[in-house]
Amino acid sequence: MIWRQFLMEWRLYSRDRVAMFWTFAFPVVLLLGFGTIFRDGGGPKLSVVRVQSPVPTPRDEALDQALKDLHLQVQSLPKAEAEARWSRGETAAQLEPDGAGYRLRLNSYLMAQAGATAGLVNQAWLVAQARLSGSPEPQRIPAQVESPGHKRSTNYASFLLPGLLGLNLVSMGLFSVGMVNVSYREKGKFRRLAVTPLPKWIFLLGQVLHRLTVTIVQAAILLLVGRLVFGIQNQGSFLDLLLIMTLGTGCFMAFGFALSGFAETSEGYAAISNLVFFPLMMLSGVYFTLDSAPAWLQHLVAGMPLAPFIRALRAVFNDGAGLAGHGVGLVIVLAWGLAAFALAVRRFRWA
Amino acid sequence: MSGPALRIRGLRKAFPKVVAVAGVDLEVARGEVFGLLGPNGAGKTTTLEIIEGLTTADSGEIEILGLTWEKAGQEIRSRIGVQLQSTSLFNKITPREALDLYGSYYPKCRTSKDLLELVQLEDKADAYHITLSGGQQQRLALALALVNDPEMVFLDEPTTGLDPQARRSLWDVVRRMKGEGRTVVLTTHYMDEAEALCDRLSIMDHGQVIATGTPASLIADMELPSVVELTFEGAAPDPAAFAARLGHAVEPRADLWEIPTPDPKALLPRLLEAAEAAAVPFQQVHIRRATLEDVFLHRTGRSLRE
Q1: What ipTM does this complex have?
Q2: Residue in chain B lying closest to A202 (CA)
Q3: What are the φ/ψ torsions at residue B57 (nearest 5 degrees)?
Q4: Using CA atoms, how far apart are residues B185 and B167, in angstroms rounded to an integer?
Q5: Residue A205 Cα, gap to closest chain B Cα (Å)
Q6: Is the minimum CB–CB distance between B101 and chain A shorter than 8 Å?
Q7: How far is the C-alpha of A81 from the C-alpha of A95, rounded, in Å?
Q8: Tens of pLDDT along A266-324?
Q9: CATH code given to domain B6-219
């Protein structure tokens, strides 16, 4: 029964060419876009706008040289032009002459970038001062960009790929799958099934399995494109990757079906899914750290499913690690998945 | 296998704004074609959906094939066939696939080939559902209702919106179901359909059953089993003066007068005489046997189609 349900889902799905095209093409387009932008080396470069001094002094020249030595991208602009750019909000950090010294303006909207830039500019200034006074250059503590698994990848796009896979899967589960389910129910597409002996859990499991395989195919396409276009390699075992993807997909698809049981209309579903999606993203600790959050929140977040999933995915894919150390995390994902599926079956209504 | 196919006692269902079913009792014998006749909003569909397990009643008892929903829901589902008022399938499923898929939900099922032949959809077997005409979709819905070889079939307004030819071919399928020994319960607001198909029927209005019997007995039970009609070109004039002269009730309709009578043969000469004397500008005279429409009108004072 379940097999037939699963096959029929695939058959119907394959007839909806437009939806299918976008399901598979969209992540590829994203990967191609980001991958191309950040193609060369170590990710987005830090840059600083340098307001030109009316009359360049040796001190100015020493500072500019030091900035270049520290691999900052320096954009040297006349005052008026720099001001215009600043007021358009395109500048993260601006270095300008100020009386006897210099001043740094940092854009409050781009703090992550501006903060890092400020550190480098100050180092450059120390170096420049030392060079001018003829004293030995101050020693710097070398820093190096690395993934937590200590495997350096040559390509920024390869760091993007697992995040892209994960994010795509979560949004598919929470947004498309649940939404489709609610809108079919709204249109009465399930009503006829209600008078048959088909158990709800079989119907739902058929759907989850279908989506699971769609996601695996999608991931395979993404990996293939990543490899052919950007030379991104999976550093770990494909079996581990498959296991993680299966657990994660099952979990978030079940999430979508569970949520759809709480919404009467598609509009209602949009609200509910956002309500779940944003905390899931924000509190996952994947996209920024929660070090300054209260302790109780950190404990709560430790039990959420998104972070362990993405971490395991990155560890295997980028660092070539095994699943050791990710057991607890994957059990959390599995537990959430099973709980969500049980809730989905419980809340599911045919009409 | 004894006892009625369906027994309902004191069924009630209220929605926030309306009492849809207000105490319905029904009994349907095995092998019978039973009709629920009534205007839109009479509570036919709600009654049927409660019986089919789609809606829960506020109170009342239902026994289907000797089973109750509380104790044997899955068994009931596997032994009945249902055609909903509108069957919404996936746009790109084909009739053959739909029949195979739904068949797989049941412990025993008929082949899609047989069913397609039964409802004459062989040439559309592999067309997408969305490309089928209304009549073809309705026939597929009928085939789906038969996919599990059910003992009892429920059809909710099976011919609404179909052209006359499509209606006739659906009637044939219903008659064949009866021929195969199935019990059929159908709702309709077409009196001709009820007369043509049903062994027995209940007339429903405002959530209640107002009469039950065979079509012939319901008509015979009326005090006035025949109607003489005078038709007019355009709107019918006010019959009050004429009725007084004739000494008999005359009911005006849009473009005709209806004169119900137990004995048209005796009335007719007097009627024509009076009409000529009063110079009533009628076009034609019809005498017709009363129909279920008249039974409904007689019982409720309203027309079925209002």
Answers
A1: 0.81
A2: B105
A3: -80, 155
A4: 17
A5: 15
A6: yes
A7: 13
A8: 889 989 988 888 888 777 766 666 777 788 887 887 788 888 888 888 888 888 888 88
A9: 3.40.50.300
